[in-house]
Amino acid sequence: MKLLLTTLKHTRNPAVYLCRRCCSSPRSSGGLSSLQDEVMVGSSLELVRTVGSQVEVRPGFITEEEEAVLLQELEPGLRKKRYEFDHWDDAIHGYRETERLRWAPPCEEILNRVRSVAFPGGAPLLGPVHVLDLDKAGYIKPHVDSVKFCGSTIAGLSLLSDSIMRLVKENEPNEWLDLLLARRSLYILRDQARYDFTHEILKDEDSVFNGHRVARQRRISVICRNLPG
What we know:
eleven-stranded antiparallel sheet, metal-binding, 13 strands, globular, single chain
């Protein structure tokens, strides 16, 4: 699906581009048009340089065929669940979720590629893979994942939709990064970006990247985490 881009007025202070073509793979990125090189913007160049070094976005990490393989595995179980609009810690609105420990071999091959990129050196991983299905009207509120449940790194595949992830420094709301998570991309958050910044997935009506509208659809994320240290 092509990403529709409509020029809008900036809703935040002027941003600084950080262009990352760290994925030299020929895999499709979902049709990002003129924004295909721009995966991160931030409130200051210093923030982009410091915290940006702990954030990675790889557009086109999986192919359309690989996305279809993952969806074929996930959809039967997800369809049995209803979207929920109350979360136990009030962090998510309009979602359904599951955890999977066992995957079909083609899916396991994809996940092993995620693990090799995000967790080099064989770091011990949290066993089940977290699958989060956001309704088109759903969103993830600003939060910091508890260190009791996961370690210093989180890596997620984005299926079905483009979206914007926003990181905001705790107690300093003027320091922020926006990440353009294209459909079929991989994002990785490490260390300070995990612990000192809230992260959220913006509502469809708020989904703007550096002045450009990024339409949100239903979105499934497949998330791997390492164990607490």
